[in-house]
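Q: Please design a sequence for this.
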């Protein structure tokens, strides 16, 4: 439907409304999904859970040359890490074939990436989780 404002008078008084309550909890922004639980923010130490697999937020974050992800696997798993620029372009992809069950560390090196915010995705046996990291 098209609404025309040609004959409307916009010279009258304007009414403004203000939000007075700016208090929010992290739970207001944490999606609860049927099968997955995601907890995280831009910079932090929270873990992301995929089924029975946990991936820590990279540390340190922000970072200069390298950062570390701790991954706890329930079974031997193929892990793919993809890193994207904020405009959605894939900037690097790393395959870690047949990582053993238990605790694993993945060290991500910037290898010349420019400073900025990047999005990462881990694909572990077909299940994916994503997060954000900052290169200084």
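A: Design:
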């Amino acid at each position: 439907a098209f609404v025309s404002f040609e004959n409307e008078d916009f010279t009258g008084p304007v009414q403004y409304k203000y939000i007075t309550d700016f208090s929010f909890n992290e739970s207001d922004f944490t999606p609860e999904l049927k099968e997955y639980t995601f907890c995280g923010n831009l910079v932090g130490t929270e873990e992301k859970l995929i089924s029975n697999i946990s991936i820590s937020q990279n540390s340190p974050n922000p970072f200069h040359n390298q950062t570390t992800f701790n991954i706890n696997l329930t079974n031997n798993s193929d892990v793919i890490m993809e890193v994207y620029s904020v405009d959605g372009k894939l900037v690097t992809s790393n395959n870690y074939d047949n990582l053993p069950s238990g605790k694993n560390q993945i060290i991500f090196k910037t290898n010349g990436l420019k400073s900025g915010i990047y999005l990462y995705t881990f694909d572990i046996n077909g299940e994916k989780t994503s997060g954000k990291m900052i290169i200084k």
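Q: Thanks. Anything notable?
A: The CA atoms of residues 83 and 120 lie 4 Å apart. Residues 32-47 have pLDDT under 50 and may be disordered.
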